[in-house]
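Changelog note: in this version the structure field was regenerated for every chain. One regenerated record is shown below for reference.
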Amino acid sequence: MTPLRVFYGYAILNNTIKQKAMRVIFENERHNGIKNDAFIKKALHVVHVRLQTEREMEDSKGCTRIFSCYEKFIDKLPFKGNIDKLLQFNFDQDSENVSIEEREEIRLKMRKTYFEFYGVKQETELIKKPI
């Protein structure tokens, strides 16, 4: 079986998609790699790509679609714009299939790209001076 990929990234905002979202897209089939790549480029700003584990590929056997997309809106409940909380959620969800080193790499890449891609300013902690 051809190795299937998992794409991590952010939704590209346009007239239809108006809310910031983190997307994880799983490939279920790989008949035409060029068309798959073209769809992915339209669907999200890719930050990280990894190969699926054997366990993840088992889920794709019964699928009738080429992709499975999981999306979490950043500014909606329960995250309310807290990117670190969202990335921790994703970190925990990947725990059974991805090594801790790769999960940490994904989290760091996603955090850095979030601020650059959406133009969000990072919150800096105020330094409290003793009175």
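Spot check on this record: Residues 100-118 form the longest helix (19 residues). The mean pLDDT is 91.
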